[in-house]
Amino acid sequence: MAARAERRSFWTWGYVSDEPSEAARKDAARNLAERLGHGIEPPTVPAIDAIALRPARLDVPAAFADWVSASAEERITHTHGGHSLELLKGLNGRFDSPPDAVAHPRTEDELEATLAWCDRDGHVAIPYGGGTSVVWGVTVPEDAASAVTIDLDNLNTVLEVDEVSRAARVQGGMLGPDLEAALKPLGLTLRHFPQSFPWSTVGGWVATRSGGHYATNHTHIDDFVESTRMLTPQGWVESRRLPGSGAGPSPDRLVLGSEGILGVVTECWLRLQKRPTFRATAGVLFDSWHRGTEAVRAIAQAKLMPANLRILDPGEAAFSAGLDGNHALLIIGFESSEIPQGDNARAAVAIARDSGGLIEDDEILIDDGTGRPTGRGGAVGAWRNAFIGVNAGLTAGLGLLSDTFETAVTWDKWPDFDAEVRARVGASLREAIGEDARLSCRFTHVYPDGPAPYYSFSGVVPRGAEEERWQAVKAAASAAVVAAGGTVTHHHAVGRMHRDGYDEQRPQLFAEMLRAAKRRVDPRGILNPGVLIDV
Amino acid sequence: MAARAERRSFWTWGYVSDEPSEAARKDAARNLAERLGHGIEPPTVPAIDAIALRPARLDVPAAFADWVSASAEERITHTHGGHSLELLKGLNGRFDSPPDAVAHPRTEDELEATLAWCDRDGHVAIPYGGGTSVVWGVTVPEDAASAVTIDLDNLNTVLEVDEVSRAARVQGGMLGPDLEAALKPLGLTLRHFPQSFPWSTVGGWVATRSGGHYATNHTHIDDFVESTRMLTPQGWVESRRLPGSGAGPSPDRLVLGSEGILGVVTECWLRLQKRPTFRATAGVLFDSWHRGTEAVRAIAQAKLMPANLRILDPGEAAFSAGLDGNHALLIIGFESSEIPQGDNARAAVAIARDSGGLIEDDEILIDDGTGRPTGRGGAVGAWRNAFIGVNAGLTAGLGLLSDTFETAVTWDKWPDFDAEVRARVGASLREAIGEDARLSCRFTHVYPDGPAPYYSFSGVVPRGAEEERWQAVKAAASAAVVAAGGTVTHHHAVGRMHRDGYDEQRPQLFAEMLRAAKRRVDPRGILNPGVLIDV
Questions:
Q1: What φ, ψ does residue A206 adopt, rounded to 5°?
Q2: B508 to chain A: nearest residue by CA?
Q3: pTM for the whole thing?
Q4: Contact (CB, 8 A) for B450 and A227
Q5: What φ, ψ does residue A520 adopt, rounded to 5°?
Q6: How far is A97 from chain B (nearest CA, A)?
Q7: What gap in Å lies between CA B295 and CA B314, rounded to an integer?
Q8: Could you give the maximum distance between any two Cα atoms of chain A, in Å?
């Protein structure tokens, strides 16, 4: 019934094959035990058929038996999103609010039938792409009387490629790697690499306004969407393929970020490009975090538009890239399918040096189409590898609390913003975790008018106290970010987790307009109730 | 009461001082007479106080007397937008559907009072920036029982500049030149130059999703808006200043393109930049329109992102830039405040040559910060001057019909799109105007996935028949553009003129959602009824 090659793990990020081995988990526990000074054992992973589950509260129509299931396995693997505390719940065998059934429609007709069934019988309907939401975007609300998760995994094809315009019509359930694999023989690529890329889907990216690996210029999926096709309980909304338009408010921009409350995104046309062959990379050190971020501002405002322009604060540079803890690391990268990028890299480095950046000329790595590696050695390569491996499961259940929060803010508020967030979150961390708690920052995206800072925190808490301690820190982080003028989320989405901050930051009447629009297409309020707005 | 330094002309584009002289109009008539073979005299411009006007159908509250007027002059100068046939009506003294009063609120409080009055008494309210709409976006609907035009001309200040983030908080009624004059002492610029720039406003740009002079990358005002502030009959909608966000559908993107049906845009934060000092320009000839547009596609898809990338078909290149009629002219231009642009220009020219582009190396004009003129000589300069002078009034009333229509379409549909549009509009032109009618095309904006073609047509028709003949051609043009896969407007907006095409191209359920959102903030439907949607 499910279309993915593999089953999604119910306790770690990714598939069953991504789960760390028992031996690796024991090693990790031993390492942590040395740090803690007392022994610690990783919890036992429960067998999936030993997990106790609330009985399904609905009957699957017999005609839907080919694509809708109420099996325990389906319900278990669709209960939680990708947040580490959800995965910890999974590891602890806790599946308190599972969907009552999971649909895997193989056609748009089956999707229509599924949504009509939910609408008629009043089942909450939860659109589901790769299940990587870290904001409780795919979880069943506790007050739902019944819920059906609609997994798009069978709608996972590239339907059409327009090589002339460089665009493709892609189904919503397509995973990142599958999309790139389908485009590769044509020499084309979307090049949208959110950190969830291996496990997340095109429809999920659109619904959550995901941010890609490009640090500057177009990076949100918003900018790569040429048109969208979405099924609502009241019918289809399909926009016209257009490279640009000024005809009224953009229909696509209402779909983008709608997080499943308006409909199910089944298809979109995406803008592609040729694969890059020219690259240039530089890793620049700064002995001051503040001067480093000033360099980032100067490069962004010079509109060189590098593909990469990420700076790691000294703590993060030490932890993720092996630096000495006294230097921030700025990673500059350019890429192009057509134009050599050495001059751009040298221009960016010159600006960085004006702000105190340290780099030798011969450390600027340039690939003028020969395939010379530019990003896999040294500190840059170390960071790249740390970024790619998400492995949340390795230390799950050991009492290690680790999470991130991300935002964007205008430059005039930076660095006061940073100081205030660190002060408030730092205080909360000391209280919830202790003096050993770590808090660090990097920029994931940079705009001419402001950065998108990404904070990571971690520490050791008593086993069993993870959720309570996390709640306190998370609440402090969201409140601090919004109070200091940032957005409660730059690319992780709102879901159910960020509702408080979102309610505070977005215009009240906009929420009312969104609610009115939702009522028009979802009059019974079955689609993801509680996400973004109350129905 | 009105805040502009000058009164807007009621029969030509711009202010009274922009009106052509009697002598110039007679010269233009003589030139046309030679072409026609019979004498022709320009019509007499009516004195403003001799124009017959329907009595105002409402009473202005006494408390509003400082900023609301029902004077004939106010009503006459706010009856028509900027379309040439509206101006011709003005020249002919026809003001059939004037607003009943014109408000010039000097503060947000006065704006609130004005809108509350309209809402309470059921007057249609028409937000008005510079009055340059060419799509009947500021005209009073004929079935309105009473109407108040709300001119933002008193809300015309830069309230705040954030030099660090390079952004400014600007009031909606600010004109393009006033904005640039205010920013110039700071070395900053918005650099958003729609063709209406001298007479149009920031609020108008936002409401209509105007397109600027940048041919590639960010050019719609959408991309320069950091936040918006809009008054609706139900209160204010104000978004947070953010460089980027993934928190739900973008509130600003619902305001952008709302064309006055949701509220009055009083303020926005706009993203600025430093003034460019590095420039490079090249004019490249092609002996084939099709090969020229192929070159444009190749340059756009190489992501060089030139500021200018406009191609004129042979007819337009002859008419506007003095070429021989057998060559298309591609104008390539780069600009930067930081980085020399010679290499980029040479890279673009190399791509153009691959598609048959003709240019000598020494015809690439490069200004590496010395102020060397790059765009004011030769064919490029001739075209630039033709673009800047809009002067619609010179030949008004002589029977010369001249208009444009603009669109955007994906590359896979081009050049068939061009052939179909020319065939259908050409047939209509032959019927409505005759064999002498001209039809030409240029690209105003270019995206990696498609161009924004801009068609111009003109010809001589019997005096008095202009409107009827225009109707036929315009209907053919809109129908052809939408049928062939384009958008009914790329940057001129929908207004009342493009409703048929818009209704056809936009998703029906999106219109329903937009209507539901409008009802929430404008329950009595007073704001610009009939624009974009029926209430």
A1: -65, -45
A2: A237
A3: 0.97
A4: no
A5: -70, -35
A6: 24
A7: 15
A8: 70
